Structures are given as structure tokens and as C-alpha cells.
Amino acid sequence: MYSFAFFPACKRKEQEPDKSSEDQRSPKKPRLVFTDIQRRTLHAIFKETKRPSKEMQTTIAQQLGLEVTTVANFFMNARRRSLDKWQDDNGNNNRESASSCTKS
Predict the structure, then answer these.
(1) Between 71 and 92, residue with greater pLDDT
(2) Kindly report the CA angle at 20 between 18 and 24, in degrees rounded to 5?
(3) Is there a domain that residue 8 lies in?
(4) CB 32 within 8 A of CB 70
(5) Residues of the domain holding 40
(6) How crowded is residue 42: how many other Cβ atoms within 10 Å of its Cβ?
(7) Alpha-carbon distances, residue 3 vs 9, 10, 11, 12, 19 (angstroms)
(8) Chain-centre distance of CA 80, in angstroms?
(9) Where does the Homeobox domain start and stop, copy by copy (predicted)?
């Protein structure tokens, strides 16, 4: 019989001993909801340019009153969504089968 005692056990959230470190963190920032004009502008730019330069992202952020990281995240997420949509349209969505993690 094999003994697996030398493998470390998986830690689950319930098993984490010290929760006091969570209390010391600052509260989570509320989710940003784009205004209609911000959303329309970002989508219009995305149709023309999938990967705007850092300078262009800075300009967009200034014009729309957003942070540069927010604009960068929008384009990153938009590219991911358009890729997912393309995969779904072609019946090629292998995201689940490519995952190395499985839920038990």
C-alpha cells in the first residue's frame, strides 16, 4: 500500500488559521459602472482599434474622466469577450477542456 503522507494537503478557505489579516485590509472598492457616453465611446474606439497604444489609452482616460488602468482593463476585457464570442460562434470553445484544474 502506498502512503501519500509526504504530499502537502490542499488548503481550503475554512482551514486558514488567521482571519485577522483580512480585517486589516482596506475595504473593497465599489465596482465602476461606465456612463452611457463612456461605454459608447470605448466600444466605438474598440471597433476601430483592438489594441490602442499607452499614449492613446492615456488620452482616452483623460477625455472620459477615467483612470488609465480602467481604460486598459476595458480593452483587455473587450478583447477577451470578442475572442469568447468568436469561439462560441464557431463552436470552438475549449476553455473548460483546456483547464488543468478540476472541481471535485
Answers:
(1) 71
(2) 140
(3) no
(4) yes
(5) 34-88
(6) 19
(7) 13, 16, 19, 22, 32
(8) 9
(9) 25-85
Residue 45 is which amino acid? I
Q: What is the CATH classification number for the domain harbouring 69? A: 1.10.10.60
Cell of 40: 459608447
Total structural domains within the chain: 1
Interval 62-81: pLDDT, tens = 999 999 999 999 999 999 99
Other C-beta atoms lying within 10 Å of the C-beta of residue 64: 19
Nearest to 38 by CA among 69, 72, 68, 63: 63
* pTM more than 0.85: no
What DSSP line would sit under 30-94, residue for residue? PPP---HHHHHHHHHHHHH-SS--HHHHHHHHHHHT--HHHHHHHHHHHHHHHHHHHHHHTT---
